[in-house]
């Protein structure tokens, strides 16, 4: 297989996006519009006729180019409508033109050279009653608790309402920069690939929000946020249950984006989500190139 390295300006966006759309392992993160926002200078490795493609999220520090996984982009890697076996993955890895990289490959890009990270996915094709039967007792208890508080779900939050709420809440993790997040959300809505949900108290006060990506067969739990009242009220449990009810019986997956934090992983497993690992490649990651 001949693999070509393309700089950003030489990538054929139409052929690129067609390949992603037709890929059996397609993810919204890999569309050109998404990459343009989270990694403006991204490059690519492509095989002949764009049958296999791999985005290269390039950054530069102290004049040294390197690859690093962009924010709000859990998995990238190789995409194709054809089978992607380990030999294909290894061939692409060999063709990476940069000495330093840290890349998250998708769940269909197994490599013995990669680290294994957890993701959790719930298949929504069964009726709701069957999906609910897979919930843990604790999950049902939290849903019941929230249901009794007369909380309301809003599937049409404005961008500014979500952004203001998101950045008003103290978080124990690194948040994306506000201009980037606003741009991504606005573009995602215009592409009909993103929706903003909220949960409000009986008095109408917003207590939880959720930004989801959606494609034909996947709903991605991209960016959840709850304030203290929302956490105490189990508002996010109610919202996830709402999404499951709304999409039960459809050919869709609810992708929770995984977590190595046991408490968060327990929440996802509590809804019946199954373990689906993805793979991370690292090479020469000195401290001065680590993303801050």
User: CATH topology of the largest domain, which one?
Assistant: Aminopeptidase
Class of secondary structure makeup: alpha+beta
Order of helices and strands: EHHEEEEHEEEHHEHHEEEHHEHEE
Q: What's the alpha carbon Rg, rounded to whole Å? A: 20 Å
Strand content: 25-35%
Using the coordinates above, name the CATH class of the largest domain: Alpha Beta
Strand sequence of the main sheet, in spatial order?
A: 9-10-11-12-13-8-14
What CATH architecture of the largest domain do you see? 3-Layer(aba) Sandwich
Mean of residue pLDDT values: 93
Spans of at least 5 consecutive residues whose pLDDT stays below 50 are none
Number of strands: 15
Tally of separate helices: 10
Question: Which features would summarize this protein structure in a list?
Answer:
10 helices; globular; 292 residues; five-stranded mixed beta sheet; Aminopeptidase
């Amino acid at each position: 297989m001949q693999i070509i390295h393309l700089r950003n300006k030489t990538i054929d966006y139409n052929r690129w996006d067609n390949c992603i759309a037709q890929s059996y392992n397609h993810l919204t993160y890999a569309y050109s519009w998404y990459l343009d926002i989270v990694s403006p200078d991204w490059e690519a490795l492509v095989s002949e006729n764009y049958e296999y493609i791999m985005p290269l999220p390039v950054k530069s520090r102290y004049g040294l180019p390197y690859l690093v996984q962009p924010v709000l982009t859990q998995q990238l890697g190789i995409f194709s409508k054809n089978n992607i076996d380990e030999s294909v993955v290894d061939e692409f890895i060999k063709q990476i033109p940069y000495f330093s990289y840290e890349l998250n490959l998708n769940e269909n890009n197994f490599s013995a050279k990669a680290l294994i990270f957890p993701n959790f996915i719930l298949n929504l094709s069964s009726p709701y009653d069957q999906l609910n039967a897979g919930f843990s007792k604790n999950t049902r208890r939290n849903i019941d608790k929230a249901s009794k508080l007369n909380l309301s779900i809003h599937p049409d939050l404005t961008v500014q309402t979500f952004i203001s709420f998101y950045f008003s809440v103290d978080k124990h993790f690194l948040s994306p920069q506000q201009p980037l997040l606003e741009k991504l959300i606005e573009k995602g809505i215009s592409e009909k690939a993103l929706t903003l949900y909220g949960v409000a108290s009986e008095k109408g006060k917003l207590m939880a929000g959720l930004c989801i990506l959606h494609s034909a067969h996947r709903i991605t739990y991209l960016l959840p946020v709850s304030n203290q009242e929302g956490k105490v009220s189990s508002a996010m449990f109610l919202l996830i249950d709402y999404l499951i009810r709304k999409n039960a019986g459809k050919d869709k997956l609810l992708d929770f984006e995984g977590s190595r934090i046991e408490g968060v992983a327990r929440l996802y497993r509590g809804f019946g989500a199954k373990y689906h690992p993805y793979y991370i490649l690292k090479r020469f990651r000195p401290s001065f190139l680590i993303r801050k």
